[in-house]
Design goal:
- This protein is α/β, with parallel strands linked by helices.
- Strands 1, 2, 5, 6, 7, 8 and 9 form a 7-stranded mixed sheet that branches. It has a two-stranded antiparallel ribbon with strand order 3-4.
- Strand 3 and strand 4 form a beta hairpin.
- 26% of the residues lie in helices and 24% in strands.
Length: 175
Amino acid sequence: MRIIGLAGWSGSGKTTLLARVIPELTKRGLKVSTVKHAHHGFDVDIPGKDSHTHRQAGASEVFISSARRWAHIHELRGDEEPELSEILARLAPVDLVIVEGYKRHPHPKLEVYRAAVGKPLLHPDDDWIVALASDAPVPDSRVPVLALDDIEKITDVLLIESVLIDRIEERAERV
């Protein structure tokens, strides 16, 4: 499996871009998974449903399965958040994993940037950022700049710059 990330400040358009890139990747015949990091609490379960009741009662893990999908919910209950490598190890094999968030983790990333967000560029301080997608020119960029709406070029860069997951630690040690 190969990995590439999308990094950027909240409101920069990472999720919107990802929702446009995934169909392009699948159109090219690739099987894609995503990992999304949330800096806040979130819930994927619905109050009143049996699985939610199981968790609220104290279950550490709840596995929900049907003929169409399954979900595995793990409550940390005070334990440490897992490292990205632990999460990646749990994924079923695919061609490409796209990580949204984990902007400080050592893996190749495309920075998504909008000046209107009012935050600084990430790539000057992150050698893992391989290119920048922006809605406006970024004249001082030290990495290639792509138009945020050029989905084909962005997809090409994501594929070219992705690396095998088992090579991340090896590359991180050299940096």
